[in-house]
Amino acid sequence: MSGIHHVTAIAGRADRNLDFHTRVLGLRLVKKTVNFDDPGTWHLYYGDAQGRPGTILTFFPWEHAAPGQLGVGETQETAFRIPAGALGYWTHRLLEKGVTHGAPEKRFGETVLPFTDPDGMRFALIGVPGAESENGWSAGEIPAEHAIRGFHGVTLLVNDAAPTAAILTDVLGFREVARDGALARYRGDAPLGAHVDLRAAGDFPRGRMGRGSVHHIAFRAVDDAAQTAMAGKLAADHNMHPTGQKDRNYFRSIYFREPNGILFEIATDQPGFAVDEPASELGRSLKLPQFLEPRRAEIEARLPPLEAA
Predict the structure, then answer these.
(1) Distance between alpha carbon 159 and the CA centroid of its chain, in Å?
(2) What pLDDT is recorded for position 203?
(3) What pLDDT does residue 129 have?
(4) Looking at the predicted structure, is the pLDDT value of residue 118 above 60?
(5) Tens digits of per-residue pLDDT, 268-282?
(6) What is residue 1's predicted lDDT score, i.e. its pLDDT?
(7) Cβ distance 192 to 81 under 8 Å?
(8) What pLDDT score does 224 carry?
(9) Confidence band (pLDDT; 50, 70, 90) for 94?
(10) Nearest to residue 80, comparing CAs of 33, 146, 10?
(11) Buried b (16+ CB within 10 A) or exposed e, 50-75
């Protein structure tokens, strides 16, 4: 199944991040854990009812992080899919909630409503005909018929599109399907998170990672064997050498920087977010990997306060 598994970004205040993504956008908080490499920092996961691959948006909230600056070698935009008939609802909602947003525009024949979150991360809502038949999470004020369905895809800002395109098509299972001005669209076969758009910017300055920046994009591997095959192809055919596998509790991951410098991850679909708590209880309590459990009291004392969603 080729598509996006999750998108991970850098935020500022954790409580503000939680409020925006659960209450304004209506995503489900599916996991409260910590950055395994920096356990004093929250790692918050948002998604649909089950936290399916293709719906998962995650954040490292560092309250004092400096703002990022967009440039080549970065994700320019992360796009969600909504039913085409929900665009009017969302335009009104963004106005009502004071969310910074742009005017609707057309890309690849689709209506796109761009907006930013409180940390300046660039998002879009894309009206997709037929998306009303897909499941949407709804447990708050957003009616189910208007709810976000998951990712549509991402737009990557690159210096030279060709080498990134080669990784997408030869290793990650995407294919080029359209061009629209400076954008080239690649599509996978997953029902969610199936689109990657490449915008070739030439000698545009490189970006600076910070608050509001996407840290990495994770692509799907159905299992360990598929991930191993992808890693082998990266090394043998593209001279790219991913990390060894890292156990992230809810998936197993390898990482590499694609030729334009964007950090890519390949994450397994399994075991999923219900591995350490029932699906009905997702996101309600702090979950730690076994190697951090002995430090729970210390970690809980260091984490910034976070009101339950």
Answers:
(1) 22
(2) 83
(3) 93
(4) yes
(5) 999 999 999 999 999
(6) 84
(7) yes
(8) 97
(9) very high
(10) 146
(11) bbbbbbbbbbbbbeebeebebbbbbb
d(CA 288, CA 308): 17
Strands (E), the chain: 4-11, 28-35, 38-47, 56-61, 74-83, 105-107, 110-116, 122-128, 150-158, 175-180, 183-187, 195-200, 214-221, 246-247, 252-257, 263-268
Q: Select from 41, 69, 74 the least CA-distant residue to 211.
A: 69
SS3 of 43, please? strand
Which residues, 6+ apart, have CB-to-CB distance to 92 below 8 Å? none
Paired tokens of 232: 């082998």
Distance CA 305, CA 45 (A): 16
Cis peptide before 163 (omega within 30 of 0): no
Cα gap 158→183, rounded to integer Å = 11
Centroid of chain to Cα 145: 22
* Tokens found for residue 81: 């899919």
Mean pLDDT over 244-273 rounds to 97
Three-state DSSP class for residue 298: helix
Other CB atoms within 10 Å distance of the CB of residue 129 = 9
**How much of the chain, in percent, has pLDDT values that exceed 70?**
99
- CB of 188 closer than 8 Å to CB of 173: yes
Phi, psi of 273 (to 5 degrees): -85, -10
Place of tokens 């600076």: 208
Q: Residue 97: pLDDT above 90?
A: yes
Name the DSSP letter for residue 19.
I
Residue 112 has pLDDT above 80, yes or no: yes
What domains does the chain contain, in order, with CATH numbers? 4-302 (3.10.180.10)
Q: What is the pLDDT of residue 308?
A: 56
Pairing of strands 195-200, 150-158: parallel
Q: What is the dihedral of CA 301, 51, 65, 216, to 10 degrees?
A: 130
For 177, residues 6+ apart whose C-beta sits below 8 A from its C-beta are: 185, 186, 187
Residue in the block written with tokens 């490449």:
198
